[in-house]
Specification:
about 250 residues, alpha/beta, about 15% strand, binds 2-phosphoglycolic acid
Length: about 250
């Protein structure tokens, strides 16, 4: 049996200021203790240079919340993977539902972003998940197939050797409504089996995180599920104490 290392990632979204960002990162580092799980924070682009300095030499890894779908050129407002790698970003979230629904990121552009990150040695955290309406219409697995296929078709299944998947049911993000342990496990198992049908080794190895109103009081149950390898944490990652509680409940 393959032992997957657990991973907890904070997604700060568009919150805080430079001073609070530095304080938060320092607070997290101070409470890391001895925990074999990996931990990272995905911070607003403009704070990447400064947080990159703060995390240097610590066990806290750094990531971005998105990355451009192109390598360089006339793409006003975009940030390339090469730029992110200059500041030691280990991870880049791609395909977050807020990007998909508010800013028009499509399955195709998400796949291109995924590839751009990997070209620079950055590990993409690919977010997938259904809306409430899609769940109620029994389309959860179809939606996830389509979201995964876009990336598999462009990057190939072996690209998932250096990637993380985050299952984030859209109806659970920022709503306080978490998927139950069993609901989340059902989809996580489905995702792993979907990948296993193409490559068993890749499926055994890939970390699949749960995201959507994960909090200190529900993290333990979620993380105990066999196919849940950690979490992508929004709201609860903005406070060092609650983020660390989640991390230490692995
Ligand atoms: P939430 O966000 O924990 O605030 O629900 C999760 C996410 O969007 O990654």
């Amino acid at each position: 049996m393959i032992m997957r290392r657990s991973l907890v990632v904070g997604n700060w979204k568009m919150n805080g200021n430079l001073a609070s960002a530095e304080l938060l990162a320092k607070g997290i580092i101070a409470g890391l203790g001895s925990n074999n799980a990996e931990i990272a924070v995905c911070v607003p682009y403009v704070y990447i240079p400064s947080i990159s300095e703060v995390v240097k030499g610590s066990g806290l890894a750094l990531g971005s919340q998105n990355v451009a779908d192109k390598a360089s050129g006339a793409f006003t407002g975009e940030i390339s993977a090469a730029m992110l790698s200059e500041f030691n970003c280990k991870y880049a979230i791609v395909g977050h539902s807020e990007r998909r629904s508010y800013y028009g990121d499509t399955n195709e552009s998400v796949a291109a972003r995924f590839c751009q990150a990997q070209e620079q040695g950055i590990i993409p955290i690919l977010c997938v998940g259904e809306t409430l309406e899609q769940r109620e219409q029994d389309q959860t697995f179809d939606v996830i197939n389509t979201q995964l296929d876009a990336v598999i078709n462009l990057a190939g299944i072996n690209a998932f050797n250096n990637a993380v998947i985050a299952y984030e049911p859209v109806w659970a993000i920022g709503t306080g409504k978490t998927a139950s342990d069993e609901q989340a496990q059902e989809v996580h198992r489905y995702i792993r089996q979907y990948i296993a049908a193409k490559d068993q080794t890749v499926a055994d190895k890939i970390q699949i995180l749960y995201g959507g109103s994960a909090k200190p009081d529900n993290a333990k149950g979620l993380f105990a599920m066999p196919d849940i390898d950690g979490g992508l944490i929004g709201g609860a990652s903005l406070d060092a104490e609650s983020f660390l509680k989640i991390y230490h409940s692995i």
